[in-house]
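Lecture notes, structural biology module. Today: joint structure prediction for complexes of two components.
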Amino acid sequence: MEKEQYKKLEQNVTPKPPYLKNVAKAFFVGGLICTIGQAVSLFYMIFFNFTEATAGNPTVATMVFFAMILTGFGLYKRIGQCAGAGSAVPVTGFGNAVISAAIEHRSEGLVLGVGGNLFKLAGSVVLFGVVSAFFVGLIKYILVTIGVVSW
Amino acid sequence: MRLLGIMLPLLVSVSLLSSCNEKEKFIVYGSPDNEKEVEAILKEHDFVDKTTVIQYDDSMLVAVQIKPWDKWKKAKLEKKLQKEFDEKYPNKDVLVSADFKIFYEANKIKKDKIEDNKLNDKIKELKELSKEES
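The predicted structure, tokenised, for the full assembly:
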């Protein structure tokens, strides 16, 4: 069988992924996670002394905590299977990446297993987050110095 | 179809709830009687959704809620209002805040009918809170 023939055959056999359905699922599940986050943020504003500007930190911590519990009980996996990017893009996806790595490598020991692999996947998120923040900051600084925008 | 069956009654009930709950949008609370004046300044701008103004003697706290689409420019609009109030009341200590926390607390002051010294302390406390950054 030639390479091109195989390609044709493969294309005929592979089922078409339901893009629209996946997008809709991701949209609604991602939206649901964000709604919960907003509720947590409102909770911190109403019952504690946090303003809109400062409520972000405890909210992120709480959302990661929720993701941790769900991952520990094996439920986040199911959300991820159903919603895809909708569950990976919010900060809960980051929490899931950290915690599932910790659970997976637990048997290899505390230092070399958990410690060494904790940021296996999430490390790239942290790295690119810091790097892109640096460049965005640099661009904004240049724009402010030129006088196009203000802080 | 099933999703629609769940979502539609939910949306309708939410919209009904919000319309039944229509409250006063411009509230001025405190000692000097210049309600009309303050209200006029705030009503000039159509990006202002709800406001609660708390005042005691020389200190004034203007808590604003900005309409959803204008929230992109929240910081800028806040500064604009602050400037306007500073010009209008040069010998008063005015603070304009678009923060939800400040708005919520201001409404609580009105609801609890806090007065005099306690009111002064509360305004001071909220002004400090709004400056906090971490």
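Point to remember: Residues 2-20 of chain B form the longest helix (19 residues).
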